[in-house]
UniProtKB/TrEMBL annotation:
InterPro entries: Cu2_ascorb_mOase-like_C, PHM/PNGase_F_dom_sf, PngaseF_C, PngaseF_N, PngaseF_N_sf. It comes from Runella rosea. Pfam families: N-glycanase_C, N-glycanase_N, PNGase_F-II_N. GO terms for molecular function: hydrolase activity, acting on glycosyl bonds; oxidoreductase activity, acting on paired donors, with incorporation or reduction of molecular oxygen, reduced ascorbate as one donor, and incorporation of one atom of oxygen. This is Peptide-N-glycosidase.
Length: 559
């Protein structure tokens, strides 16, 4: 009889221990920035037990998170970290890391703090130059954290990054209805290596639109090209129709271009542009037939310039990117210099989100021009990366209207160079401002050309913009950083004074770079017709050499 109470006591202890082993604790965390809690955030949810710990969010557990999203799970039996990604197409991937948690280098400190009634100890570490302080408790006899960091310390109730960004527990519960979620998905998702997992997850967060892949741009009568790609102007212009997805007005779009020499050794002007087709005459007419299809601009200097300014029946091309090829990258990499390792190609990536209204949800012609007379020419690849964002924007819709473009992208088919600035009138264009239009700007790209010592390529020249006879903007476009791009210029000429030609400063461009647009505020222009003028003191010809300016401008605003 005396042994009965002892038996009962041992049995109760067994059941209590077994229950604790199966208990699942639910910890809810909120984020703070500089002491303030951002509104409408999705709380982090950690489910922790003796067998494992999962990290997700409230919306994810409720099934309200739009893919792609991911959750983490720590298997306490072998201390492995699993990351699981869920994609919009229904695909699920998983990666396992058996060393990540064990290899964390965390310093334990003597500081203590009480959080939600539990005494917490402090630990600290540095991740990518960020100081992370961790406050953890051992009183609950479980391990967990709102991220992978600190999972082996105990239960982390607060993380502080660089002293101003906090993630702190606001609620601790036990055996909630969500406890059953504390496990790996069943059946187990496809398992991949960590790099494949990260790459697949990253790519799923945006839209990639491939346009050209290793397309040749050279001087040739050949019209051969890949499917849906057409070649114009003796092969120096390639074009293709592209259907853009419809995304929110606050989305980000990047143009990505890579190129390398396929024979041409020189630095050349390049342009990526769209061809508007909504008016009676289109630049596409000239590409398909003849440059004679384009309207003529004259300013009294005796020359005729084809298709450079808008008219009631015509819109010039809308320039997306101005770029410059370097001296012979890849093709001439055999020209060795000590301690110089040449690049394999040039890569250009530019944000063109400001032009989104011109192509959002539309099918448009996209073209690339590289001016050259070489049979080998250049090879280019181009794609757009679209990063959707559904943030609300202003009620009025943004608009883009190309006003002028003097870059003679049909140079090899007879289009005149932009030499109209040798006349006081320079370049003039008339445009309409609709009723109620506001926030008007000019997106302006400018580069000077004339490749000898006194040519405008090497002489700073002021660009002056006037509207209705009133000067509104002046800039002297110049690049003094060209030496930074020496490693993409293997075929650059070298001078007796130790300089390379690619080192020389130029009128807003360098061999192997992109020329950035300039945004010019146009002020409060009333509805009706206005005249814009571009004036540049263009240099005089010397012998057979002359200067020219490639300028493009698009009217931007809300109406």
């Amino acid at each position: 009889m005396k042994s009965f109470p002892i038996f009962i006591l041992l049995l109760l202890c067994f059941y209590e221990s077994h229950a604790q082993t199966n208990d699942v604790w639910q910890i809810t965390y909120l984020r703070k920035n500089n002491g303030k809690v951002p509104p409408n955030q999705d709380p982090i949810i950690v489910l922790a037990s003796a067998s494992g710990t999962s990290v997700s969010s409230e919306k994810t557990i409720k099934g309200e998170t739009k893919p792609p999203f991911e959750i983490s799970f720590v298997d306490r039996t072998d201390n492995s970290l699993y990351q699981i990604a869920f994609f919009a197409n229904g695909k699920t991937l998983m990666t396992q890391d058996s060393k990540a948690l064990a290899e964390q280098k965390i310093e334990l400190l003597s500081d203590t703090q009480v959080i939600l009634g539990y005494t917490c100890k402090k630990a600290t570490t540095v991740v990518n130059s960020n100081r992370i302080d961790l406050w953890y408790t051992e009183e609950l006899k479980i391990k967990g954290a709102p991220s992978a960091l600190g999972q082996n310390l105990g239960l982390v109730l607060k993380m502080v990054r660089n002293g101003n960004s906090e993630t702190e527990a606001v609620k601790i519960e036990k055996n909630t209805p969500w406890a059953a979620k504390n496990q790996l998905p069943q059946p187990h998702p496809q398992r991949v290596d960590a790099l494949t997992y990260k790459d697949e997850l990253w790519k799923s967060r945006f839209i990639q639109l491939p346009v050209f892949s290793h397309q040749i741009i050279n001087f040739s009568d050949s019209v051969h090209a890949a499917n849906e790609v057409v070649r114009f102007a003796h092969g120096t212009v390639i074009a293709k129709k592209v259907k853009f997805p419809s995304v929110g007005a606050a989305s980000n779009v990047f143009l990505e271009l890579s190129q390398y020499s396929n024979g041409d050794a020189y630095d050349r002007t390049g342009s990526v542009f769209m061809i508007p087709t909504q008016r009676k005459v289109s630049f596409l007419d000239a590409l398909q037939k003849s440059v004679k299809e384009l309207p003529i601009y004259e300013n009294g200097n005796g020359k005729q310039y084809q298709g450079v300014v808008q008219t009631p029946d015509y819109l010039p091309v809308l320039e997306l990117m101005r770029f410059f090829t370097p001296f012979g990258v890849r093709q001439y990499n055999y020209l060795q210099l000590k301690n110089k390792t040449w690049a394999d190609s040039t890569y250009y990536r530019q944000d063109i989100s400001d032009l989104l209204p011109a192509y959002n949800g539309q099918e448009v012609w996209v073209a690339v021009f590289i001016g050259n007379y070489d049979k080998g020419g250049h090879k280019v690849s181009l794609n757009f990366s679209v990063h959707p964002n559904e943030r609300p924007t202003a009620k009025q819709q943004s608009r883009i209207v190309p006003l002028f473009n003097t870059t003679n992208v049909m140079e090899m088919a007879g289009q005149e160079y932009g030499t109209m600035f040798n006349n006081e009138k320079g370049l003039q264009v008339t445009f309409d401002v609709p009723e109620g239009a506001k926030n008007l700007k000019l997106r302006y790209i400018t580069t000077g050309h004339g490749g000898w010592g006194n040519g405008d390529e090497f002489v700073p020249k002021a660009n002056t913009i006037s509207v209705d006879g009133r000067q509104i903007f002046t800039i002297t476009p110049w690049r003094a950083d060209c030496g930074s791009y020496r490693l993409v210029n293997p075929a650059s000429g070298n001078f007796n004074n130790g300089l390379s030609s690619s080192d020389l400063s130029r009128s807003n461009w360098c061999p192997g770079t992109v020329t950035n647009p300039i945004w010019i505020e146009l002020g409060n222009l009333p509805a009706g017709k206005h005249t814009l003028q571009v004036h540049i003191p263009q240099g005089l010809p010397e012998g057979g050499s002359f200067s020219a300016w490639n300028v493009s401008g698009a009217l931007m605003g809300e109406w």
